[in-house]
Structure formats: C-alpha cells, structure tokens
Design a protein that fits this description.
The complex is a heterodimer of chains A (359) and B (195). Chain A contains 17 helices and no strands. With 359 residues, chain A is mainly α. Chain B contains 6 helices and 8 strands. The chains are: A mainly alpha (359), B alpha/beta (195).
C-alpha cells in the first residue's frame, strides 16, 4: 500500500515537474531578463514581500488598510495558483490518475503539490515562525490569514470560479462604504428568489451574435471570463499599489510612471498568448470560412484598444509624463512581438522599459 | 480533376514533399500511404487551406481560391474549442449560404450533441462534426480524411449510404479501404508515378 502511494506520488511529482518546466519555457527568457535587470535588487524584492506581509500583521488601528493588503496578497496567490493549477493537478491525466489511485491518495498528493507550489504560504509561515509569543498574541488575525491562504489555495485547485467570485465580492465589501453594501445586500436578498429560479436559464442565455469577428471574440471572452477577471483584479491592485507609492514618494513620479505603465501593459499583453491560439490552432477552419483575416484584424484592434485604455489609466494616474507617449507608440510593436512569441515580447518589453528611463 | 506539380512542402527542416507530382482524376479515389507520410498535409494544400507551399496545385485548371470549391473533413481542420458544435455549423452555413443540415444531423445521430462544446465532444462525435461540416456545403469536390475512423457502425453505414448519393469528386484516405472499395473507390498510392 505504502509503495503504491510512493509510486503514485513519484509519478505525480514527475508530471508536476514536467508541467512546471513547460510553463517556465514560456517565461524563461522573460524571467532571465528580469533577473538580469534587477538582480541586485532581488534580496530587496524578497524583503519587500516580507514587508508587505508585515502590513497584514500590523493592525495599528488601520483595519481597512491591513485587510486590503491581505486581500491583495490573496489575489496574487490566486493568480499564481491558477497558473500552476494544471501542473499541480496533472489536469490532462486526471482520468488516468483515477484509474490507478483511490480518492484519498489523490487528494493527499494534490495537497502535497499545492504546499510545494504555495510560495506565499511559505513566506507567511517563515514570518509566523519568527514571531515571538507576545507578537503572536497581538496578531491573532495573522494566523487566520494563513489559514485563509491555505483554504483558498485548496479551493483554487478544485473550484477556481468560486475563489474569483469570493475575491470580487470581498473587494466590494472592502471598497464600498458600509451602508451602500447593506443596501446592495438587501436588494440582492430581495431578488434572491428570482435569481434562484433563473439560475438554470443562465446557461441558455443567448450568446453574442457570431455574424462578425467581434462577435466571435465576445463568445471567446464569455468562455474565458476568468482570464479577463484576474487581469482586471491584478490591474486594480497594481494601480492601487502605485497610487500608494505616489502618495509616499511624490518625487519619484517620473521613475514610477514607466514602471507602472510597463506592468499594466504586461498584465494585458499576456492575454495575447491565450487568445492568439484561437487563430493559430484553428487557422484551417477560419480560412475555410474566410474569417481568418477579419479575426486577425479584430484580434489586433481589440488588444490595441485594451492597451490604449490601460495607457489612458496610466497617463491620468501619473499626470501625463511625456515618456508615456513612447509606450503609446510602442503598442503596435509590443502586440506584434507578443503575437510572435513570449520570448520576443519579453525582450521587447524589457528593452522598452530600459529605453524609457533614458528619455 | 486535381493536378499537383512540383509540390514542395516543409515544416521547419522536415521536408514532407519535395518536387511531388500527383494527378487525381477518378471520381472516387482512396489515397493510400503509411502514417506520417503527409496525407493530411496534402489534403489541406489541395483544399486551399494551407497556402504555405511551393509548386502548382490545380482544381480543374483553377489554381486560386480552391477552398470555395473543395470542402475538407480532416483532423487537421480543428474547430475552436470555445464554440458549440451548433455554432461551428452555423458559421459554415452563414458563410456558404447552405441549408441547415437536418438530414445529416439526423442520420449521424448528432442532434443531442449540437449544444455541446467542441472541447467536450468525443472523438467519434468530433469526426461526425467534421463530416457534417464538410458535407453540408455540397461542393463538387469533397475530401474526407479517414472518414470512418472512430465512427460507430450505424454512422459508417450512414456515411456509405451518403457516398452512394454523392455526385461530385470524392477523395478519401483510409487505412481500412475495403468498405469504400465496395462503393467504387479506386485505390491510389500517394507515391504512385501516375502522371
């Protein structure tokens, strides 16, 4: 029994390694360039993570601030785990796994691989271990936060949509004034019976028209809501983080502007990788109905519009610095590079970031 | 009639066809070649869906826009996994202004799977979707790559019955050609020097 368990664990670990390796191949070049650019700051970045966790630990009467920092960390961990989910669970081989191991064994190995991947949990745990008993007694909520990290991690594996909905709802709870929230809750309660009745019909909601290429992309977006929602959440967090930094150090606005814009862009440029497969993998079908060219055109138009909107958010936030025009004109180049490969995009993105500090 | 002259096709460094020549003149042809020889690649080129090749491919003296006159059912023609089977057929119907394939859906027993996402279709149903998608266009030339693979017995019978009624040029590939030889197909090797 034990040897079977070990064999299954070994198999799952190898499958996990392979999944991670394939994932890293996509970001290898990007990761190397980031390390090359920021290698001197790497220890600082690790320390920054601990400082961020420290914000969760410190209540200091600023409850909302602490809660918001905690929420942001949970969003980031969800993003990480959603990316790694396929490798952790060995999604492509779930049926095969069922045929060779019982449910308990599968769950145990899933949990083991989750712990192996859950870097944010390690950081929290390291911080927890280094806290004194007195500190711990003053920050009991930190233990609750770690428990939440673990529970949300498990839920992300098996019910990713639930986690995203929970995060969106909790953001609404944090962001909206209390009374507004109460009103919304009351209205929702009032409508709940109706919503419950109509839930079954949700799946049969008329999908957007397929008569145009844009309609097809609308269907794609509906089917890949999660990919859009987590990017929206990530963008909101980044905007708030940079806003916080602007308040703390207004003199660094010129430095923060290119970095912030580049990160906002990066979040949305990664959407190109998953959406381009619609064209690249099904090109014969699209060509057979003469939709390949319109779809390609609309693909670039839609991605450019998203980036222009993101750029607009950045210029408003950073008060129109001239250097951001460089990023505006760089949008077509970045899209072209992202269409080619992740490596090209990583190289182009890093070059643009470096050049923007020389302007 | 399909004429291929000096076809060269490569994937990176791997050359699949080099100065390849072939003429397909029979009304019903079953192309024979071992796995990996390039049948599906050739079908995509003939049907005008893969423009990345060197050489000359003609359908009845027509070199361009062959996809207007040839319909292809092949595993290489993958459907977008975020669409339902019905949406795939609707797009084809809208483009080629053909009738909704009630009869084909019925004979293949596909009605129940119309609302299923392409990603969730079984291999047999995926094959049925490929066949319906190509057959509904009623083109004068039809290419079916391994049409009986993964199909249940009833669907194979329906396919053979449909083939009986088809009037245009039909090119297929099959590793089990006996069923089709009974329907008047001529076996032709991919590497035959028939031109």
């Amino acid at each position: 029994m034990t040897s079977r368990f070990l064999l299954f664990t070994q198999y799952r670990y190898k499958s996990y390694q392979l999944g991670v390796k394939q994932l890293l191949e996509h970001v290898q070049q990007f990761g190397l360039i980031v390390i090359f650019l920021f290698y001197t700051a790497m220890p600082g970045l690790v320390m920054l993570s601990f400082l961020w966790l420290g914000k969760v630990v410190q209540f200091n009467g600023q409850v909302m601030g602490s809660v918001f920092h905690g929420w942001s960390l949970l969003v980031l961990q969800t993003g990480l785990l959603l990316t790694m989910r396929s490798s952790i669970l060995g999604m492509s081989f779930r049926v095969f796994q069922r045929s060779i191991a019982d449910k308990l064994t599968r769950l145990a190995v899933d949990f083991f691989l989750l712990l192996l991947t859950h870097a944010p949990l390690w950081l929290s745990f390291i911080l927890l271990v280094n806290m004194s008993v007195v500190q711990l007694s003053q920050a009991k909520h930190f233990i609750a936060f770690i428990t939440l990290q673990l529970i949300l991690g498990v839920v992300t594996l098996y019910r990713p949509k639930t986690v995203v909905i929970l995060l969106v709802l909790s953001f609404a709870m944090i962001a909206l004034p209390f009374m507004v929230w109460v009103c919304v809750t009351l209205i929702l309660c009032g409508l709940s019976s109706r919503l419950h009745i109509e839930t079954k019909n949700m799946n049969s909601i008329e999908v957007p028209s397929l008569k145009s290429a844009y309609g097809i992309w609308a269907v794609w977006c509906l089917k890949h809501k999660l990919k859009i929602i987590w990017r929206l959440l990530a963008t909101i967090i980044l905007v708030l983080v940079f806003q916080f930094m602007q308040v703390q150090r207004p003199d660094l606005n010129e430095v923060l502007a290119p970095l912030g814009t580049s990160l906002y862009f990066f979040v949305w440029l990664t959407l190109v990788f998953s959406s381009r497969d619609v064209l690249k993998c099904n090109q014969y079908y699209w060509r057979s109905i003469e939709l390949l060219k319109p779809l390609k055109r609309s693909f670039f138009v839609l991605h450019a519009l998203v980036l222009v909107f993101t750029w607009f958010v950045a210029v408003v936030q950073f008060a129109w610095p001239i250097v951001l025009w460089f990023w505006m004109f760089g949008i077509p180049v970045l899209l072209y590079l992202a269409w080619g490969s992740a490596r090209r995009l990583a190289l182009g993105w890093c070059c643009m970031l470096v050049v923007s500090y020389f302007i | 009639m399909i004429i291929i002259r000096n076809l060269t096709k490569s994937f990176g460094r791997a050359t699949v066809f080099s100065n390849f020549n072939l003429t397909l003149s029979e009304a019903k042809v079953c192309l024979q070649a071992p796995n990996g020889r390039g049948k599906s690649t050739l079908f995509a080129i003939i049907s005008g869906l893969d423009p990345h090749y060197a050489g000359e491919v003609k359908l009845n003296e027509l070199a361009n826009n062959r996809h207007n006159f040839i319909a292809l059912a092949s595993d290489s023609l993958t459907f977008p996994d975020f669409l339902s089977a019905k949406q795939v057929l609707q797009l084809t119907q809208a483009k080629w202004l053909c009738d909704w394939p009630f009869e084909l859906i019925d004979v293949f027993g596909f009605e129940l799977f119309l609302e299923t996402n392409v990603a969730a279709l079984s291999s047999g149903n995926h094959k049925k979707l490929q066949l319906i998608n190509a057959m509904m266009r009623k083109t004068d030339t039809l290419i079916l790559d391994e049409p009986s693979a993964a199909l249940d017995a009833g669907s194979v019978a329906a396919l053979l019955s449909w083939i009986d009624s088809y009037q245009g040029q039909l090119i297929i590939s099959s590793h089990e050609p006996d069923l089709f030889l009974e329907k008047g197909f001529i076996l032709q090797s991919l590497d035959s020097k028939n031109d």
